[in-house]
Amino acid sequence: MTDNNEKLVSIIIPVYQAKDTLRECVLSCLNQKEVNASEFEIILIDDGSTDGSDKVCDELASEYEGKVFAYHIKNGGVSNARNLGMEKATGRYIAFVDADDKVLDEYLENMLRVLDDATVLVDEIGTGIGAGKLSGYQYLENYLITGNSHVWGKLFLRKTISDENIRFKDGLTIGEDLLFLMDIALSQGKEHTIKCIDKADYIYTDNENGAMKTAFKESFLDQLTCWKLAEERLISAGKYVSRYAHVSLGVSMVLTALLVVGKVAMLDEKERDNDLSRLAIDESKKQILHALKIRGVFAGLSMGHKLKVMIFRISPNLYLKLYGNYKRG
């Protein structure tokens, strides 16, 4: 399946402040059934960690020489780390794993066994129903913009990523996975090259320090930027996606804008009265109003979110006060 200089799979793991979970993560990747250890490599990209993760990376590379490779860079974000990992990869296929997660021992085998020469992406959807082989447009509409917006739990053909010059968007801290996946889907267009299988071999850890679970900060505006860029990509698909795809995207635009506003609402009133908070409120309002112009978006919201939208449109300040008081109990 591969030549003498090419691995079968490169597993790319961006590492940042993951000292306590990294070793278990790497060992789970190494412990793969039915895939010879010589056929895959693990690439660790230490993104300027300061908690000792860098030493763990070097220890693992030394212990598993020829199987685990460690690289160290200045902190530049997960997109930059993954892009470097793709540059260093030698595998025919690429998989992404986060340093605080784990995989089961059949993770690679279950995806590799469904491959054929025309497969560009395998996705473990774990929904109970395997979707078979999809076109890029079908995958974009039925999976990506409806919530399957993470790159883990998937296997990518490296040649396609390289030939199409697909990269994670540097500087974007939220939503970079979605845009990467949309670019791959759009590159496939009408071609049926994507396989979705009913497996769930990736063990995701819900990180309480994740990007959308911390206090409001400037990077939260990336959530708004992400959906603007996603909409541009969806529009480029033209007639190959239905209007319901645009409705799904519009609903997501509303929900993420409310999420950003909710983070501002949790600030002390004095903290809200600054340029960044006002910018977040203004941009969120613009995104909500824009999304509501898409026929069917308002109807697609839950009753609770409809009420939130109506209050926010009438008075953003009232919404902030009511939401902040409610969340604080």
List the helices and strands and how they pair.
Elements: E1 7-15, H1 22-30, E2 40-47, H2 53-63, E3 68-73, H3 78-88, E4 91-96, E5 102-103, H4 107-112, E6 121-124, E7 132-135, H5 136-142, E8 154-157, H6 158-163, H7 176-188, E9 192-197, E10 202-203, H8 222-236, H9 243-265, H10 269-272, H11 275-292, H12 297-300, H13 303-314, H14 316-328
What does this structure look like?
This protein is of the alpha/beta class. The protein has helices spanning 22-30, 53-63, 78-88, 107-112, 136-142, 158-163, 176-188, 222-236, 243-265, 269-272, 275-292, 297-300, 303-314, 316-328; strands spanning 7-15, 40-47, 68-73, 91-96, 102-103, 121-124, 132-135, 154-157, 192-197, 202-203. The strands form 2 sheets. Strands 3-2-1-4-8-6-9-7 form an 8-stranded mixed beta sheet. A two-stranded antiparallel ribbon has the order 5-10. Helix 9 (243-265) crosses helix 14 and helix 13 (303-314) packs across helix 14 (316-328). The protein starts with 6 loop residues before the first strand and ends with a helix.
Write a concise synopsis of the structure shown.
The protein is α/β, with parallel strands linked by helices. The protein has helices at residues 22-30, 53-63, 78-88, 107-112, 136-142, 158-163, 176-188, 222-236, 243-265, 269-272, 275-292, 297-300, 303-314, 316-328; strands spanning 7-15, 40-47, 68-73, 91-96, 102-103, 121-124, 132-135, 154-157, 192-197, 202-203. The protein has 14 helices and ten strands.
